[in-house]
Design a protein that fits this description.
about 475 residues; alpha/beta; Carbamate kinase; VC0802-like; 2 domains; about 20% strand; disordered C terminus; ACT_Aspartokinase; ATP-binding; nucleotide-binding; aspartate kinase activity; AceGlu_kinase-like_sf
Amino acid sequence: MNFHTVEKIGGTSMSDYVAVRDNIILKPVHNESIYNRVFVVSAYGGITDLLLEHKKNGQAGVYAEFANSLNDDSWKEAMEKLKQEIFSINQQLFNDKKMLKLANNFIGERLEDAERVLADLQRLCQHGHFALDMHLATVREMLASIGEAHSAWNTAALLKKDKINAHYVDLTGWQTDKHMKLDERIDKAFAKIDLSKELPIVTGYAHSDDGLMSTFDRGYSEMTFSRIAVLTNANEAIIHKEFHLSSADPRLVGEENAVPIGRTNYDVADQLANLGMEAIHPKAAKGLRQNNIPLRVRNTFEPEHAGTLITGDYISSKPCVEIIAGCKHVYAFELFDQDMAGNIETYDREILAQIRKNKAHIISKDINANTITHYLTASLKNIRRISEALQEQFPEAEINQQKVAIVSAIGSDMKIPGILARTVSALAEKNISVLAMHQSMRQVDMQFIINEDDYAGAIKNLHRYLVEVHDHGRAICLAS
């Protein structure tokens, strides 16, 4: 193929069609032509939360209600709420009655199909021979696909109305009679598309026989985006978000102090993903990295800004801290047992098995002779399940859990003499106690475990001490 980019548009950006059209579609980063680009779109902001569950607070959507209520119809109420929101979005987007009817018919058929499938499955699983748990992964995949089908179809239709030759590409496998690998589905969809004349608008969800959500869960659209970039041999992958990849959260350090990073590498992107920051899923980044495809993160609402370029080989010209990031609502899960000394492997293996079983995410981990501490993001219910299972396996162990926060200084090269002392001093200045800390020999991040109430103060002071901003809006690296 000729020079082309593969670009992903986030959900918040998708909710503003005019901004997407004017700031992204009509303002290509590299070419004068608006073509030779592929767009992978997320569902509109909030729709996947209504389909599955709220990403941050866990409030149940259709999937969660269905999974937890075999014998009642609470999922139908969630489905009705979803329908109202989807049709409201369509009402706002389509002024033409004919187009509005087409849009409502398209997504309405999928919603009706999904509702019928769930009702049939619910009846089936009320019989003792059929277990609902065996079908939930498929239900989750089916529901997730609706969000991206909705936004992709709408966007393609609106762009055609605006005289752009957009092409709706449906990778959801809806009502497919054949299961196939993800790469095969992508290759088949793009076999007859002429990128020089057509603008593919692709569903962020792609159906595969392995199931994207079983591995990536809510990061599935990033994997679709990555595989399309790799398989089409893209020259650059671009993610359009509603914010810049900045030196810290502007809401905490002030918009006048937080600056776009400009350049960094995939190591830094991995550290951010580990903290739950929405850069790119590590496994999606892996494909881009291995194929030497640079990734650019841009702000939809600042189209003149080049954004942040992420490559595999970038190292800052001077050792420096590029980003201060962190994560709240973390559980420090500690298991102490005197018998652990000399037998750490057995304890570690069993703890990891329970963490994996209960779908908790490990951010960091500490080990000494008789204690293993994991820093986890998970619901309190799942933390308690892990604790109960391990207490049964190790009855003499002392198991504790505590809510904490993690703040991290991150950079592509942080081999700076004295930086640890400087960082601890920055925290001590605000009377912030460090409960634990971690720094690896790779020297790309330092993590500090602190009390949750100290999170905002820690981010602010670390940013003030470790990231300085000059008049040109670039982060100044700390001289060694």
